[in-house]
Write a structure and sequence with these properties.
44% of the residues lie in helices and 13% in strands. The chain is α+β, with helices and mostly antiparallel strands and 103 residues long. The radius of gyration is 14 Å and the shape is globular.
């Protein structure tokens, strides 16, 4: 999950946007106990939904590749950027640029 890196990104975006960008996390963990342990260990206090039955995936027909499971939505819930900004610096730049465009 690399929650510490997500916390860094959230802090960067908050400083750019004045806390106007919301981050929502949906997890379908193999172990709820382990997911809870990791969030507590990393002091991760942002909204996080544990989706035991992968309902969000079923409703949205996400591709099987994990790289397509992270995305930035605009105010109208349209996808602006796809990809994980934690694993890819180029995608991170796309996220930051897209956020700056609307500020």
């Amino acid at each position: 999950l690399q929650l510490h890196k997500w916390k860094e990104l959230i802090a960067e975006v908050d400083s750019l946007s004045g806390n106007t960008v919301q981050f929502l996390f949906y997890l379908t963990p193999k172990s709820v106990k382990e997911a809870r342990y990791i969030t507590r260990r990393d002091d991760f206090t942002h909204p996080l939904c544990i989706d035991l039955n992968n309902e969000i995936g079923s409703m949205n027909h996400f591709p099987t590749e994990d790289m397509f499971h992270t995305f930035l939505l605009d105010a109208d819930n349209r996808v602006k950027v796809i990809g994980n900004p934690i694993h890819n610096k180029a995608v991170r730049s796309l996220y930051i640029d897209a956020i700056r465009e609307v500020l």
